[in-house]
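In line with agreed milestones, the collection of sequences with tokenised folds has grown. One record among many is set out beneath this paragraph:
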Amino acid sequence: MLMNHSSATEFYLLGFPGSRELHHILFATFFFFYLVTLMGNTVIIVMVCVDKRLQSPMYFFLGHLSALEILVTTIIVPVMLWGLLLPGMQTISLAACVTQLFLYLSLGTTEFALLGAMAVDRYVAVCNPLRYNIIMNNRTCIWVVVVSWVFGFLFEIWPVYATFQLTFCKSHVVNNFFCDRGQLLKLSCNNTLFIEFILFLMAIFVLFGSLIPTIISYTYIISTILRIPSASGQRKAFSTCASHFTCVVIGYGTCLFLYVKPKQTQAAEYNRVASLMVLVVTPFLNPFIFTLRNDKFMEVFRDVMKHCCQLLKG
């Protein structure tokens, strides 16, 4: 059905401009970022699963966030790296393009829903600590995670379906390193104003639907922290939220520029840079943001490393 309506059986990814030497430098750089992203997020998942000291709602959500980071980068980055090694444009089939775009958008939507849930979790921990274990029990945490994943995948079915119902008669060359929806809309000879407006409204719903509870939660968190009499108490309370707050600023900042705009078919260079921030830089930074300033996680990590060294010596 999709093939009949799209008049395309494959697309060509233009990738990055520049010489072969530049492509090799980009390949080495992005490959390094990708490996660190995989290793960093895998370490977080393993630590959360194996150590009882990290068996809490915050780390449970963090484990799922790390899994999302691994998945969303693995969907896009290996294809991008392969394209940097090819002498010309990269060919991607219609089915692969549909799958890539759907998984990318679905996982991204799930991630925003989870970030909003993590903000509420921090609000309960700081503002209502005596009831934290009652409110954020195992059943609640599992329910929140399941709803986030299901919502993310169901929400993106129509946008992807509507995108590939268009007729791509202008060209089949996508001016990006992956099946970017904005660039796909540029290739259509249909009038895309209506669908772009609907996509704009849906992007606002996802981003602001999770950003509003985040803003409200941090408003109460900051108000509560400022009422703590000791400076050390304030620092300790804010340290539990600092990593999540930093991740929120970076994640929402880049995606607001990338998706919340009435005109989806924005300049290719703008989309390419913003996409790199979302797909390469942010997943690379998140493991460091969530772990380096987290004393409990670093303590667990050191203990596990010592145990592994003792096993190797034995």
